[in-house]
Write a structure and sequence with these properties.
The protein is elongated, with a radius of gyration of 36 Å. The longest helix has 67 residues. Helices cover 91% and strands 0% of the residues. It is mainly alpha-helical.
């Protein structure tokens, strides 16, 4: 009789202990998950801050270049951009217009040689 009562007692004790261990494991998993989420949020905030800083630096450089660019250069660049955009239909016309715009802009011997090779291929 004592053995039956003792085994029943220890069985209920083991069940309670297992339930307690499962609760502890669940609590640890939840804490670990929450800390992981906090870490992800902190990293995201850092990345956003770095993006803001990078965008600010890029904007400063663009503004600096624009301020150095004379108004005549700006008009010339705008005209070249519009001209190339009008020819942007693909095919040989688009390549030819880019080469012609490059020649007008720089007119270097290398570009002239490339344009000559391109024209000889046709």
């Amino acid at each position: 009789m004592a053995m039956v009562l003792g085994s029943a007692y220890w069985e209920s004790d083991r069940k309670k202990r297992n339930e307690y261990n499962e609760l502890l494991d669940d609590k640890k998993k939840k804490e670990k998950h929450e800390s992981w989420l906090r870490e992800l949020e902190a990293r995201e905030e850092e990345e956003q801050e770095l993006r803001r800083i990078r965008d600010k630096l890029i904007q400063q450089k663009v503004d600096e270049k624009r301020s150095r660019m004379t108004e005549n250069d700006a008009r010339q660049l705008e005209g070249q951009t519009k001209e190339m955009a009008g020819q942007n239909k693909g095919g040989l016309g688009a390549v030819r217009s880019v080469l012609e715009a490059s020649e007008r802009r720089r007119g270097g011997p290398i570009l002239e040689a490339v344009a000559g090779l391109w024209q000889s291929r046709r």
